[in-house]
Amino acid sequence: MEFQEVVDRRRMVRNYDPDRPIPPEVRERILQNALHAPSAGFSQGWAFLVLDEPGDVATFWKVSDGGEEQENPWGAGLRRAPMLIIPLSHKQAYLDRYAEADKGLTDKSESHWPVPYWDIDTGFASLLMLLTVVDEGLAACFFGIPPGDRMDAFRQAFGVPEDYTPIGVISVGYRAKDVPSPSLKRGRRPVEDVVHHGSWGNRLA
To answer: Is residue 186 domain-resident?
Structure first.
């Protein structure tokens, strides 16, 4: 598939065929491509928890949604995904990397960081996975784990260390008939509304 077609076809899909598992070679390509994401200082402070056994997927939904999504048609469709990938960011990997001699931030203070690059870089990796899914003819959706008790239950169920932060979940599967999100009615903002050329007040012609 041509790259522009991959970009144009990328959508958040919330309903899957539960009877079509992800081939192992496709799963591996999705994960391998994630490793090509940029990362500050090549810190690579990320990890990916893959759930593709039915029991593990069921456990995820049990601990993370409290059963509420079963009342929601979109939630029911998400639960049919045969594979979930949870990208996790590791802040300490960045603080440690930038304390090394070639960077020199030996105090390991977060104040040196204008934004949390550990989360941003893990987001880059997530986008590469989303694009690879499209290139493989599959579908995906990125969504979050609710904070508080549900996040705690998720960590406990899967043994996730406290210093790794789940930035979201990527459901992956073969697309079934889907209900488009009502948010799509907002339309895509045109380039001239979001691009400032040369200075903030200058728009693209």
So the answer is: no
* pTM, full prediction: 0.93
Residue 42, SS3 per DSSP: helix
Q: Which domain holds residue 41?
A: 3-180
Q: Which two structure tokens, joined as six digits, stand for 103?
A: 């960077």
Tokens for 1, please give them: 């598939």
pLDDT digits (tens, 9 = 90+) for 58-85: 999 999 986 555 556 668 899 999 999 9
- Torsion on CA atoms 1, 7, 118, 87, rounded to nearest 10: -60
203 domain-assigned: no
pLDDT digits (tens, 9 = 90+) for 141-200: 999 999 999 999 999 999 999 999 999 999 999 999 887 788 888 999 999 889 999 999
Helix (H, G, I), strand (E, B) or coil at 200: coil
Q: Is 5 helix (H, G, I), strand (E, B) or coil?
A: helix
Task: From residue 132, give the alpha-carbon distance in Å to each of 5, 9, 36, 129, 185.
Answer: 12, 11, 12, 5, 26
The total number of structural domains in the chain stands at 1
